[in-house]
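HOLO CASE FILE
Compound: adenosine-5'-monophosphate-propyl ester
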Amino acid sequence: MSETPPVSPEIDALLQEHRVFPPSEAFRAQAAVNDPEVYARAAADPEAFWEGFARELEWMRPWTRVLEWTPPDAKWFTGGTLNASVNCVDRHARSARRNKAALIWEGEPGDRRTLTYFDLFRQVSQFANVLKSLGVTKGDRVALYLPLIPELAIAMLACARIGAVHSVVFGGFSAESLRDRINDSQCRLLVTADGGFRRGHVVALKQVADEAVADTPSIETVIVVQRGQQDIPVVMKDGRDRWYHDLMREASHDCPPEEMDAEDMLYILYTSGTTGKPKGIVHTTGGYLVGTYATAKWVFDLKEDDVYWCTADIGWVTGHSYVVYGPLANGATVVMYEGAPDWPEKDRFWEIVERHGVTIFYTAPTAIRAFMRWGTDWPRRRDLSSLRLLGSVGEPINPEAWIWYHLHIGAERCPIVDTWWQTETGGMMITPLPGLTATKPGSATHTFPGISAEILNDAGEPVPVGGGLLALTKPWPAMLRGIYGDRDRFIKQYFSRWPGGIYFTGDGAKRDEEGYFWLLGRVDDVINVAGHRLGTMEVESALVDHPHVAEAAVVGRSHEIKGQAIAAFVTVKEGVAISEALGEELKKHVAHKIGAIARPDDIIFAADLPKTRSGKIMRRLLRDIAEGKAIGDTTTLADPAVVARLKEQYLAIEG
Ligand code: PRX
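Model generated. Tokens follow.
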């Protein structure tokens, strides 16, 4: 846990990066924020700074205090009441934005729908009434397991409208993953769909949901959205399963919003940690909405006529904060696309940008690296001149990918905002402000105004220039309020490394002489595969669940496109024959247990795993082997010959 961040050749190169890109005069002049004073003003009085954004939202009752901070517990805007769906929908539907497009949606097969703010208002209210009619009340948990279709945003906002807590589970997760998440938070109702589309194939979500729900006693009702024209076979269980369209047909459009305390729970979102069990990150209403509203407004420089597209799936936090809550709270037009970037061709994203005149585009480095590999012809054949701002999120972006994005997508005209944050932080924490910040490729630059971050060493001493662990030293409105049902883990994971309510991010980082932050990746047992966060222990548990596996150790290794790939070292039970087929079977087993995103890239069968004399697996050695690095000191090893054997085996499969 307390290892200093590994310095790979890529990171070394990153730290040699000296190019600087100030915003163009044209961009700066029109930007909402172009006065550097904002930083000093926010730092002098962060509470007043956040309060300014809170005032731009609609409250039912004003707050009496901005912040009550009893580490590790923060309460923001106490005494205030509001409703998130009113802020994301009603207030725009009541205004001149009534007929403005809220969601421009495109399915992978090419089907399209546009919902205005007024449409969204009516459908959210209707679905809120559906939930109510099925007995869902304030505080109940509702699981959402859907493809990227408008109904997912509608269902989230409908939950928020009646005070139910949504728990969105990414549609690529397995039945078991869905089951565990439903059971952990005891959801009463599940909303799913007959299926979704990915690279031309139907993903049969209802079938997976059926398997999950066979073992979730808390679920009373399953609502099924019919995804499209294609007939996807579905078995409806009497007394439990209801069609979304049948229920909606009968529901009234009038649903008065529930008055929510600023600290009432808005949602739970599960994310991977350092144990085998994902944790339910809890976000509350007022602070989260203020945080996502403020960061979406300033970092994306949102204007009334922008067409904004964040390519993330809503199943991840990026989708929660920057497909749904942040942009809709701002009354923006949001593009949603269901499928893969290379379907039917490798210019699908650029075709969408061209067709809808997208002005702001936010994606992950793993996608940018794939675009690089596919070549510049694909974007070149499309008109991307509507773009004015580009964003990156989810993992460190290497300077090559940054420059490629800048040249070939941004045409050297669009500022790039590389935004660092986490499921736990709710919103962006370290990011440029596009009209203000001179960016450096590979650096997320500076904290958002009002946010305090530092690099600390293990002893908790600040490292003003140099590398160490990234810490957040003051509370912020959108911060997590806990891990659902696990207070101890919340304290232990985030607030026990250093005293005084300092939050430990799990990331290594470096600060340069000019105060820029450079994120170096996780320092714990969390890996980031194609922008997806995974716990190595989760994958290990899935592997040892297989009857032939005795022991497993999983590490991340660098990967040209995905950032990191999963390497699994496995020992088999006595009498089991090792074969390529078994390796394939194990990969399939993990994909089935967790979801395709967790499928290991390499399985290395080992006679033994390197252990210390006290029996602890030496993961760092395994990482070095997987990275093909020279192995240093192995004196603590029980059997040093194990390492030599493993290296040989690894080289053999790498071929
Ligand atoms: O390691 C950091 C990396 O993603 C982790 C958070 O993952 P998750 O909770 O799934 O949220 C992803 C979307 C916000 C962080 O601990 N990370 C995220 N953004 C960046 C990043 N690493 C470097 N640069 C970023 N811009």
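CASE NOTES: Residues 271, 316-318, 393-396, 418-423, 444, 505-507, 519, 521-522, 528, 533 surround adenosine-5'-monophosphate-propyl ester (CB under 6 Å). The CA atoms of residues 625 and 647 lie 6 Å apart.
CLOSED: yes
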